[in-house]
């Protein structure tokens, strides 16, 4: 598979939905791709493979769910297992991004103020949260310069 060194795929991991976004290094911006439904505690790996083959990213970014105080929670371990699977299956570098408040920010960007959301709104929120995580990683000053330069 030929890698597009400008492309980063971001994943907002959840036990019901996984939001996916594509980002690019030049503008350090991202756009939503989709939100996958998780069935029986397993993501649709065939669909993830299709997306990765279509976009040919150089890097994958996954949101790490933490409590507000920075401690882990049960979903943290599940997300870390998702990361291990991504690394194992696709042989691409995978970076974790702190996802605290990304859902809140996604709701704010989408102007969704209600607490009860329909399925379509939930899928939009997850894809938008993936955008936020991807842009956060692309704009993070702590990313080593050699990693950013490899995306050129």
What's the topology here?
Elements: E1 4-12, E2 17-24, E3 29-37, H1 45-55, E4 57-64, H2 74-90, E5 94-98, H3 102-109, H4 119-139, H5 145-150
Parallel strand pairs: 1-4, 4-5
Antiparallel strand pairs: 1-2, 2-3
Compute the gyration radius: what is it? 15 Å
Second CATH tier, the architecture: 2-Layer Sandwich
Instruction: Name the structural class.
Output: alpha/beta
**Overall pLDDT metric:** 82
Determine the N-to-C terminus distance: 17 Å
Spatial order of strands in the largest sheet: 3-2-1-4-5
Protein model, in words:
There is one protein chain. With 152 residues, the chain is an alpha/beta fold. The protein has five helices and five strands. It has a five-stranded mixed β-sheet, with helices on both faces. Strand 1 and strand 2 (17-24) form a beta hairpin. The longest helix has 21 residues, at 119-139. The model has no long low-confidence stretch (mean pLDDT 82).
């Amino acid at each position: 598979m030929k890698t597009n060194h400008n492309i980063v795929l971001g994943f907002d991991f959840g036990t019901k939905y996984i939001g996916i976004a594509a980002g690019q290094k030049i503008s350090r911006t991202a756009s939503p791709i989709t939100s996958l439904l998780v069935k029986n505690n397993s993501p649709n790996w065939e669909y993830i493979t299709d997306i990765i083959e279509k976009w040919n990213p150089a890097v994958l970014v996954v949101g790490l769910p933490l409590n507000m105080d920075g401690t882990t929670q049960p979903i943290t371990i599940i997300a870390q297992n998702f990361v291990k699977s991504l690394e194992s299956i696709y042989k691409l570098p995978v970076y974790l991004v702190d996802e605290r408040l990304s859902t809140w920010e996604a709701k704010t960007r989408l102007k969704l103020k209600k607490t009860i959301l329909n399925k379509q709104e939930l899928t939009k929120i997850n894809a938008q949260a993936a955008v936020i995580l991807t842009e956060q990683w692309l704009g993070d000053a702590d990313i080593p310069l050699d990693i950013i330069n490899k995306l050129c």
